[in-house]
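A note from the maintainers: we've had questions about how concatenated examples are separated. There is no special marker in the raw files; a new sequence line simply starts the next protein. For clarity in this README we add a label.
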Amino acid sequence: MTNTRRYTYDGSAEVEARIEHDQQLIAQEVMAAVVPKHFHALVLIGGYGRGEGGYIWHADEPAPYNDYDYFLVLKDMSRRKARLLQAQLQTLAHQLSEKVGVEVDLAVLRSESLHRLPFTLMHAEMQWGHRVIAGDKDVLNDMPIMPFKSLGLGEFSRLMNNRGALLLLNAQSLALSDSCLSIESRATFFKYLNKAVLACGDALLAAQGIYHPSYIEKMQRIETIAELPVDDFIHLYRGALEQRFHPAPEQYNDENLEDWQDRITQCWLNTLKLFEDQRLGKDISDWDNYVLAEIPKGQLESSNPVRNMIITLRDFGINHTLRHPGWSLRYPRERVIAVLPGLLTRSSSGASMPVSMTNPLAVEAGEKWSVCVEHYLEAWARYA
């Protein structure tokens, strides 16, 4: 378990001081929102928690570039009260985001539940690298040990979906804007592309059984992999890594959006094929086959079919539940994972979608790509 001492990999004292100032501001306001007897700790996770956060310079002033992600650990609080506080914290997180200039995410954990946290990629990475901003420095000691070599590969199916969804947002932007994006939108567009490339690296490492949370170590290990998704993957990965540590979106001002979108989408699809072939132990013949409910997507929640049936009834209605029993027994995130490759290979707002794609999304057969994308994004936001 690591409680890191830096926020960035190579930021100057001035950069570190700026981020430290943000942390103290956020800690002060979060602690003010919690009854003192219930506050246990505020834990910074993600890139800054691991000491690998990115930064950018504006008019000779340093600023953070990545999100600030936290777990607020509470003690002696009921589940109901913790849920209520989580809802209240969303308003505070939005206010803090406005103050520090990057998105602030606050998630609640109860101390009493730490010993039974599910074995997920997020929890394993939190255990490996975090920074306690306020409260008990040993707060995470009650977590079960989560070695990366034992992490289920379905966690990386989930990661690939979350980053592939960013490619779909890009495709939607291109379809709606006719490639005329503002400077800010172009920066976001390429940020999403680079996030997808980095996720491809994670999936490749996981498939080989050599995943590591540190980006520096990832780069070294990726260079040892024999089969890569595209010939220039090492070059793409190095570029994405540089943009994560030292973002310079102006470098892409003259680049062709469609060319880059097609290039990274194909890289993502090729990576997903390599990864899922390894996870499933068999060849995925095509994405129309992959979309079937019979092919498991490795999500932990799908091990509880009764609960999933109840969720499906609640969210999709009885008619859909009865017509599609295969999907009804699986957690809805599996639907989201299943349809994404097909949506990305049919990136055209005027195209009609086959039944194999519309059924998981609970939309009418023959609906246009654009409608299916909207339904996918709604489901992604809910279940991802």
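[label: protein 2]
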Amino acid sequence: MSKLFLLFFVIISFSCNESNNTYKPLSSGRIHSVSVVVNSNDWKSKIGDAIRKSYADEYLGLPQIEERFSLSQIDYETFSGFARTSRNIIYINKRKTKSYSIVKNKFARPQLYLEISGTNENEIIEQVMLSKRDGIKAFTNGEIIENKRRILQSPLMKTELQNKYNIDLTMSSAYKLFKNENNVMWFQKPTKYGTSNIVVFEKNYKDDIDLNDALQIRDSLSKAFIPGRLENSYMITEQAYLPVFSKTKIGKFDAYETRGTWEVKGDYMGGPFLNYIVKDTLNNRMIFLDGFVFSPSQRKRDNIIELQSIISSLKIYNKEWGYFELESSLFSSSSFNSFLNSLIPFPKPPINSEILFPPKRKSITTTIIIICQGPIATRLVRDITLLV
């Protein structure tokens, strides 16, 4: 195999779309946790009830009830220093006219600060309810990005997805290829009490998908490919509860999302699943991505959120486009990310690069688009030109 000699030109610029260039510490906090700044009496009153009802309601698609966000109350007097570095904050302000607003990176980076204001109890409760849609969307998207950031900080797995499907997923090296047969790849990560799993395969393109289609595809694959512990047992979608089905997007591609619970026919096993069917218009096919968790008697919300973060990292390449190889190894997004992050001095957030190579030619110049996923103290690698 011939080797390619790559010459990199790195241009450094000074912008990350920050309105305030003063130093801010890195944020902290567990995944899907929100600090609520409000006095103890209000937290125990109807105001607290409204906040819990809006932001700690049930997370859909789990076998047991778990809250959407884990809320912790902080009094105004103690909201200083390290407490202000929480990644997600809801601040109740009783000294302003009724409103709500979301501010990014107010005290730390990355951070979402939702301020809800009103001069009396009824006004604050009203604004809590009005803020729910925007607040949940902002916090949820922020947590997906945070999960991706944490994955990028760990050693990344080099998958065979690019060779087999012309796609890429960003997942940690804790995931191993568990099974690879009949055009299906199954990745699995051992956890303390079970496993987290991602199954990938492709099907012929179809203009539209409904819930019945999604479940038929999932159950037929599970029956053939995901056996249970006992002979003649296999995974199926749990029939006692109707899954939640919706249209969404993975990157720029239309997709169908199904959330629900699975069980094993002929055995006593079960857990939550998260399924995406992506309409790959580049290659005229459907990409099936199924994440499921097995963790008996344990909380599973954070496991599902991690799987969602991995699946949302999907990159699709045109099958007619080529990949460049360096020292006999695939030159992939993950390896290029590692190269970029090695250039940035501490504190260095992860950078995620999306690499699109044109059809093979003898000599090309390709611009690499860099996506900043975290704070950089003073500089950001903005553009990189790759000469082959």
